[in-house]
């Protein structure tokens, strides 16, 4: 693997949020109509932003119409790579690097090569890497291909509240852990740390009396918070110095996260081994030795959570998704 990128920035970390905003829609207004078997979702189990798309695809039952390509947990300066596949080549796209799909559409693509990305299989060109829009479009544009019993993850009456919660959670939690980990100055780190834990305390208060973030069923808001919480103890607490307390020491959030983890479609997408490898190996300027810690013990994710007492119906009037396809199953963790 070639030299890794540098992640720590002088002062405060600022995320580049300019993504390819092309959309795949039912009416095809951007030139990419919803069409089964035409698009491939390229993700990585290590990445929290990509993890969201894998969860939503599972919950809605889109596995049969949008194929999944998985990059390995590490990457170099150039691109995520398909090193988990035979010969290091994606078996559908025929490329060794996700970068190849970006350059197929944008020969001078100036930004980082990110997952998740949706790729147009016939042309081999990337369509979009706008992960926030991607999952909403799975819910709203791909309805003709949802499985029977698919949940309403973005129900119209709750969209304004979901959007509001998502914006706060992104700013203070999803991206907040990165502002801690990639801060290049003490004051920037401490400000990010204080903002992160203030918001986690606020979320604990909100979730103390309701099972899910918005309404009484799982929504897009829960998916977005879950992927950060799942990485909190394995990597953020130590690697990103978010160490006021572990998730397992925050009773409400810990029970909430376990409730979701034990819900079909959530925990069965989590690969703790790949998550730890990614953060501790790729972020070489934070962890120059590349040593991946053995701990923590993660078997506690399967302990009873007691959140059923708050009521709520995980899938509303719908049903849980079936087990993932054999080729997409995550190895059991210990």
TrEMBL record:
Annotated ranges, domain GST C-terminal: 155-279
Positions of the UniProt region annotated as Disordered: 303-334
Coiled-coil blocks: none
Record's keyword terms, sorted: Transferase
Record-annotated active site: 47 (nucleophile), 178 (proton donor/acceptor)
Residues binding glutathione: 80
GO cellular component: cytoplasm
Site (Lowers pKa of active site Cys): 236, 279
Alphabetical list of PANTHER family matching this protein: GLUTATHIONE S-TRANSFERASE OMEGA-LIKE 1-RELATED (PTHR32419:SF6), GLUTATHIONYL-HYDROQUINONE REDUCTASE (PTHR32419)
Name assigned to this protein: Glutathione S-transferase family protein
Organism, as annotated: Nocardia panacis
């Amino acid at each position: 693997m070639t030299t890794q990128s540098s992640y720590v920035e002088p002062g405060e970390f600022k995320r580049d949020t300019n993504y390819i905003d092309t959309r795949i829609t039912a009416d095809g207004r951007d030139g990419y109509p919803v069409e089964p078997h035409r698009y491939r979702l390229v993700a990585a189990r290590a990445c929290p932003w990509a993890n969201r798309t894998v969860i939503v695809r599972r919950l809605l039952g889109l596995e049969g119409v949008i194929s999944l390509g998985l990059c390995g947990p590490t990457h170099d300066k150039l691109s995520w790579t398909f090193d988990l596949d035979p010969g290091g080549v994606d078996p559908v796209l025929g490329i060794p690097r996700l970068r190849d799909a970006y350059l197929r559409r944008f020969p001078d693509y100036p930004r980082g090569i990110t997952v998740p990305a949706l790729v147009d299989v016939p042309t081999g060109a990337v369509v979009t890497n706008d992960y926030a829009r991607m999952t909403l479009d799975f819910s709203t544009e791909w309805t003709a291909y949802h499985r029977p019993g698919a949940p309403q993850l973005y129900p119209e009456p709750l969209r304004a509240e979901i959007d509001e919660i998502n914006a706060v959670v992104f700013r203070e939690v999803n991206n907040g852990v990165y502002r801690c980990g990639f801060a290049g100055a003490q004051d920037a780190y401490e400000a990010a740390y204080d903002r992160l834990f203030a918001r986690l305390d606020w979320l604990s208060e909100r979730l103390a009396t309701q099972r899910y973030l918005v309404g009484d069923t799982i929504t897009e808001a829960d998916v977005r918070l879950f992927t950060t919480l799942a990485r909190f103890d394995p990597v953020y607490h130590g690697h990103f110095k978010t160490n006021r307390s572990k998730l397992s020491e925050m009773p409400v959030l810990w029970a909430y996260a376990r409730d979701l983890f034990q819900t079909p479609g959530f925990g069965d997408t989590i690969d703790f081994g790949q998550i730890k490898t990614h953060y501790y190996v790729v972020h070489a300027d934070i962890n120059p030795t590349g040593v991946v810690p053995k701990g923590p013990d993660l078997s506690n994710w399967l302990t009873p959570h007691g959140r059923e007492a708050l009521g709520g119906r995980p899938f509303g009037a719908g049903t849980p998704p079936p087990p993932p396809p054999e080729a997409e199953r995550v190895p059991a963790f210990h």
